[in-house]
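Q: Predict the bound structure with zinc ion.
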Amino acid sequence: MAKVKAYATPGPESVLGPFEIARREPGADDVEIEILYCGVCHSDLHTARNEWQNTLYPCVPGHEIVGRVTAVGDRVEGFHPGDLAAVGCMVDSCGRCPSCRDGDEQYCDAGFTGTYNGPIFGGGENTYGGYSQRIVVKSSFVLQVRHDERDLASVAPLLCAGITTYSPLRQWGAGPGRKVGIVGLGGLGHMGVKLAHAMGAHVVLFTTSPGKAEDGARLGADEVVLSRDPQQMAAHTGELDFILNTVAAPHDLDAYLQLLKRDGTMTLVGAPAAPHPSPQVFSLILRRRRLAGSLIGGIRETQEMLDFCARHGIGADVEVIPMDYINTAYERMLKSDVRYRFVVDMATLR
Ligand code: NAP
Ligand code: ZN
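A: Predicted complex:
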């Protein structure tokens, strides 16, 4: 066991502060990574504050991890000391159930093991995430980084915000000739705009923040709609093939369902602490519309997304922060004041 510096919270009412954790020595199938950058996901905040009522404490969040390999086990292939490597939201799963066999480990029947907060389903031992100096992970859950090393900070958010938007955009066929709505321009939303644009879709961004309209266009939106303006919303009734909703707070879903074409789907990836008001049945039955959900993405698909982003020169727009800024960063995230992902420079923890 190696002692490692980290940042943790002891309970839902506390702020995060310095903490020490133990990491296992790398086993035969493990990769040890010195963490260089870790993105700050809204899920980190939900978990640190026990908003989903499943948090194990102490809680060390962080599941957008990039760094350098420092050691590998005897059986590890494809990773060598000195390589860049990445870890996302999962560090293990059963490997045998139909979802795992399909490469959809995020839907593992036994419940995958989260990079932090342990086995998300079914209880078990806690795990500690990327707000730390080092991590040791089974090699089958470690990703290759093919971006230029100078862009490393902007790669970190791809490990959750990137894959969580890439997977549903692929699943529901975002591409040329399709009109795709992205709701919310935060960490996930801004990746959704970039990725849907790169896939060739016509992108309509829905934001509550008038000050983000220009950025929306720069990031790849063909149209920007201020979602609190009913007239702007009504102008898009029945137009969209697909909507990806990334909003982190409860809101009126009918306002968006109305904008779908016949057979259109709105997929929720935002996971607010409290439920959305129930949508009207008629929003769905009148045009055979669907309301769906999606959880991150599998390991194979995460690698595919990273390679797609490397090929297209895509990274997140980031504000790099020191570790001790994290509590302020959380408060700013709650005010939708992030452009568009905080990333912790882990050198500031040493
Ligand atoms: P974020 O950076 O805070 O972005 C959320 C955006 O939602 C905000 O920037 C804001 O965009 C919009 N928003 C916030 N409050 C709103 C409100 N009251 N009404 C309407 N819009 C509002 O968060 P994130 O990291 O992108 O995460 C978003 C959500 O996805 C979180 O709930 C997170 O836990 C969840 N998540 C889910 C998965 C998954 O696998 N399904 C994975 C990662 C994260 P505008 O200013 O443009 O309106
Ligand atoms: Zn996340």
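A: The mean pLDDT is 97.
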